[in-house]
Design a protein that fits this description.
This protein has helices at residues 3-13, 43-49, and strands spanning 20-21, 52-57, 60-67, 74-75, 81-89, 95-101, 105-111, 120-122, 125-127, 139-141, 147-154, 158-159, 163-170, 174-182, 196-198. The chain is mostly beta strands. The strands form three sheets. Strands 1, 2, 3, 5, 6, 7, 8, 9, 11, 13 and 14 form an eleven-stranded mixed sheet that branches. It has a two-stranded antiparallel sheet with strand order 4-12. It has a two-stranded antiparallel ribbon with strand order 10-15. The protein is globular, with a radius of gyration of 16 Å.
């Protein structure tokens, strides 16, 4: 049995069994690309009031994993949404999130790597050693993170306030299946567009 196989099997055994925690973390990205956030809700405010799932896979931490609230209280087959989370790596070696799947939906990764308001489809997300998904040089990530999982199409009904299983595959750490909470909350304000601010000195 190879080390990679052991990691995958161990990761699968670490499936989180529904414990959820409220975290004052920041996730998601406003602007173009994929399904927009909860209509009218700043992502900073969403994160302060979300009840997401917290999970660990070796040195990898997935914080506040949640699906934004369905507009009518239930996602129907064919509808789309966003799944938000925060990724962190406590290992001295870089890892990558290379695949996300769900039995409840077709999903894809999106990343606004340039923090220009457009999250493009990507094959994976690098997670730096002792860090997280990197932002562009000279810019600070503020308010929310510029990556998310786009739920392209639900394949079965999913109610607000329930959860859906989502499997995350990491290049080094292996697989973990997390019950992503579907948020039972109401929209109120305009979403933020940009995830980063320029911190370089003018000129």
């Amino acid at each position: 049995m190879t080390g990679g196989t052991r990691a995958t099997m161990w990761g699968t055994r670490r499936t989180i069994a529904g414990s959820a925690v409220a975290l004052l973390m920041m996730a998601g990205c406003g602007g173009e690309g994929g399904q927009p956030p909860d209509e009218g809700v700043p992502l900073e405010e969403q994160q302060l009031t979300t009840l997401g799932t917290n999970a660990e896979l070796g040195p990898i931490t997935l914080r506040n994993v949640y699906v934004q609230r369905p507009p009518d209280g239930e996602f129907q087959p064919g509808q789309s949404a966003r799944l938000l989370l925060t990724l962190a790596n406590e290992s001295p070696e870089q890892d990558s999130l290379i695949r996300v799947t769900s039995s409840h939906a077709k999903v894809k990764l999106r990343w606004d790597r340039d923090c220009d308001g457009t999250a493009e489809p990507v094959d994976g997300l690098p997670i730096t050693a002792n860090g997280t998904v990197p932002g562009p040089p000279g810019r600070d990530v503020t308010g929310h993170l510029p990556y998310f999982v786009e739920v392209v199409e639900f394949t079965q009904p999913v109610l607000a306030g329930t959860s859906m299983p989502v499997t995350f595959t990491f290049e080094r750490a292996g697989d973990i299946t997390v019950p992503a909470k579907v948020q039972p909350r109401e929209p109120i304000d305009e979403p933020a567009r940009y995830a980063c601010v320029d911190v370089r000195a003018p000129g």
